Amino acid sequence: MPEQAKGPDLAKGPDLAKGPYLAKGPYLAKGKVICAGLGPGDPDLMSVKSDRIVRAARHVAYFRKPGRPGMARQIVEGMLRADAVEYPMEYPITTEVPVDSPEYNFQLAQFYDLWAQRLAALALTEEVVVLCEGDPFLYGSFQHLWSRLKAQTEVEVVAGIPGMVGCWNRAGLPITWGDDILTVLAGTLPEAELLAQMQSSDALVVMKTGRNLPKVARALAAAGRLEDAVLVERGTMSGERIRPLAGLDAADCPYFAIVLVHGHGRRPQIGGPE
Ligand SMILES: C[S@@+](CC[C@H](N)C(=O)[O-])C[C@H]1O[C@@H](n2cnc3c(N)ncnc32)[C@H](O)[C@@H]1O
């Protein structure tokens, strides 16, 4: 039997001279999985590359909650080929059980295993496009498929403008100046951790707010940052709403919502510090 070509030696780490590090084949598959980052919601903010890939796709997969269209699918409405085959990947659970419970871990792991198997089987012969809101490698569900698929199938990931970038541009203020430190937090973190990070950063982005918003607002108040915080709901999407967070009913917050605290760092000004 001919000796199989060896893949990269993962223990050695990336050879940066060779450019972006990808676990490359050999793959048996003739097709591949392409995850197209779609940007923050407004289809006009999609890259030319993702636009081209989405319009040409024969097989299109996307995540959604059962009974919902799915945000990524909504972004590409009107763009798919008439003969495109769609694969809605429906989460078995979302917020019903705590994210750190064994039940959540088991159900989600099983779900990602199953879809990774299905997509890998499809990619034996076909190109499959997975749709992803924002950028696929920023808290994206696709990452859980990527980690399962990358050793067996060619996987291409196409960058997208992250949701937070769309949000801070719509909020109409620069997020960082000079040497401001920007920290990106997940609203799912414990309140004490949120508070510690909020106290030590100049500019803040808090993602995964939704039902975590009351906790996020309490931490911001304790850090003395609540008055500077802006809530961006559905940034660049239809139904967008941008308001100061202070004084809002924090119990009423959609899933696609981000809290921003803008930095105020160094900027050259006549009469400023020499
Ligand atoms: C699972 S993360 C996915 C992030 C995505 N991959 C990205 O690049 O933005 C989902 C969270 O991103 C934030 N988000 C993403 N896009 C948003 C938008 N257009 N408006 C408001 N929040 C958004 C929300 O906080 C939401 O809970």
Task: Describe the overall structure.
- The chain is an alpha/beta fold and 274 residues long.
- It has two domains: 29-161, Tetrapyrrole methylase, N-terminal domain (Cobalt-precorrin-4 Transmethylase, domain 1), CATH 3.40.1010; 165-261, Methyltransferase, Cobalt-precorrin-4 Transmethylase, Domain 2 (2-Layer Sandwich).
- It has seven helices and ten strands.
- The protein has helices at residues 48-56, 71-75, 102-122, 142-149, 163-170, 191-199, 213-222; strands spanning 32-37, 59-64, 85-90, 127-132, 155-158, 182-186, 203-207, 229-233, 241-244, 257-261.
- The strands form two sheets. Strands 3-2-4-1-5 form a five-stranded parallel sheet, sandwiched between helices. Strands 6-7-10-8-9 form a five-stranded mixed sheet, with helices on both faces.
- A hairpin with a 7-residue loop joins strand 8 and strand 9 (241-244).
- Helix 3 (102-122) crosses helix 4.
- The chain starts with 31 loop residues before the first strand and ends in a 13-residue tail after the last strand.
- Mean pLDDT is 90; it is low at 1-11 and 13-21.
- S-adenosylmethionine binds at residues 40-41, 133-135, 138-140, 162-164, 166-167, 207-210, 232, 234-237, 255-258.
